[in-house]
C-alpha cells in the first residue's frame, strides 16, 4: 500500500479539465422535502475557501484517468462558494479546482450531498474541516495520517543517506521505515473495517495486493493461476462508484494489459467472463467494463486478441445485455463479427482455387491453396499498384530466395493479385520474377476478397495456414519475421503436445 497516494495528488497531478459532463450518467433520486412541502435540493454543498479570489470553482470527477467537469460552485461572497442542484451528482472521487486549474481539495461525493467544508488555497490537510460528511471525515483522517507519516519517512530516508557508511544506522532507520509502514497498514485496515461501505474504504481496499498462498513446487502454474483468479478479491465490482475514482482504470489496465496479456484466447475469455459476471448486468460498472474490454481487444495489436473480441460481443452485446445500445450499433457489431469470426486463429481456412498466371498464359490452370507441398502456406493478398505491397513483396522475395538457397524454406507462398487490370498484374509478376504461386485475374471458386475480409483490412494482407489447413496467423506481420513466427508456433505446439501427454 502506498500511503503517499492522496497527498501526491495535490502536489504532482497535472489537471487536464475536459468538459464531458454529458458523457457521465446522472443518478436519479427523489429530492428531499422541505418544511413547507417544497423540494429541497439533493445537492447542497458550501465551500469556505480562505484566501480564494475566484469567481467560481469547478467540481471535477475522476473518470478514466481524467478530471472531468461535473458541476460548478458559484461565488456567494469572498471565499464562499455554493454548489446547489435539484438532482444529486454522481458519487465518486472529486477535486475542487480554481479558475486557474489549481486543485484546492480532493473529496468524496457521498450519497448525502448536503454538507459544508472549510479549507484554504494551499491544500494543507490540517486546514480542512468538514461538517455533516462522515465519509469525508474518514478520508481526512487518512490524509492527515499519511501526511504525518510521509514527513517521518522523508526524515528516516534522509538519515539513511547521511549515515550510509554506518551499517548500524542504516539498519536502524530501515527498521524505523518498516515499523512506519506496518503502522500505516494497520491504520488503513482499521479504517476499512470500521466503515467497509464507505467509498474511500473501498478505494483503499482496492489498492491492497491480494495475499498469495505458498507456491506448489510441483505446479509452477499454480501461483500465476491463483493470482489471475483472485486479482479482483479486494475490488467490489458491484459498486459502480469505483469507476469514478483513481484506482479502478489502472486495475483494468494492469489485469488485461499485463496479467492476462500473454495467455491463450480460451484463458483470457474465461477471466473476461469472470469480471463481467461479477458486475451486475445493466449497472454502470457492467457498462464500463464491457465497453472497456470490447475496445481493448478490438484494437489490440496482439495476435489472437480478435478472438477475445468476438467472444465478448457474441456473449454480451449480441445477447441483449447492453440495453443502452441502439439497433444501429448492434447491427454494426453483428456485421463486424460476421467478418472476423471465420478468420480467427484455429479455424479452417476457406480453400481458394484461382487461375495461376505462372502455369499458362491463358490462365486455364487453376491452383488450390489447400494442395501445396510445404508444411505451411502463406496467403499473400497484394495490389501491384500499392507502394507498401511493392516493398513488402520485394522483401518476401528476398526471404523466399535465401531460404530456398539454404534449403530451409518450409512454406509456400500463394500470392493473390488484387488488381482489376489483369495485364498489369501479369506484367508485374513477370518483371519481378516472383517465384511462388501467383494467382488472380478476378476469378475464383469463391469471392476471396470478401471471404478473407480484404475490403476492410486492405492490401497487403497476410494469412498463414498449417498442414491441417487451419489459420495460424490472421494479420500481417513484417514478412522478414515469418521464419521466427513459425519457430515460435512450432515451439508452442510442441509444449502443448508435451502437456497433453502428461495429462
Note the gap between the termini: 40 Å
List low-confidence stretches.
1-35
Rough outline: elongated
CATH architecture of the largest domain: 3-Layer(aba) Sandwich
What's the β-strand tally?
A: 18
The number of helical runs is: 15
Q: Give the count of structural domains.
A: 4
Rg measurement, Å: 31 Å
CATH class of the largest domain: Alpha Beta
Please identify the structural class as seen in this structure: alpha+beta
Let me know the average pLDDT. Answer: 89
Strand share of the residues?
15-25%
Describe the protein.
This protein is of the alpha+beta class and 503 residues long. Helix 2 (134-162) runs antiparallel to helix 3 and helix 9 packs across helix 10. The radius of gyration is 31 Å and the shape is elongated. The protein starts with a helix and ends with a helix. It has four domains: 5-133, Immunoglobulin-like (Sandwich), CATH 2.60.40; 142-206; 222-343; 353-499, 3-Layer(aba) Sandwich (Glutaredoxin). Strands 1, 4, 5, 6, 7, 8, 9, 10 and 11 form a nine-stranded mixed sheet that branches. The chain has helices at residues 5-12, 134-162, 167-194, 199-206, 222-230, 248-259, 265-278, 284-298, 305-315, 327-340, 387-406, 422-432, 448-451, 454-457, 482-502; strands spanning 17-18, 32-33, 39-40, 43-50, 56-63, 66-77, 80-85, 92-97, 103-109, 113-120, 129-131, 353-355, 366-368, 376-382, 411-417, 437-439, 461-465, 471-473. Residues 1-35 have low confidence and may be disordered. The protein has 15 helices and 18 strands.
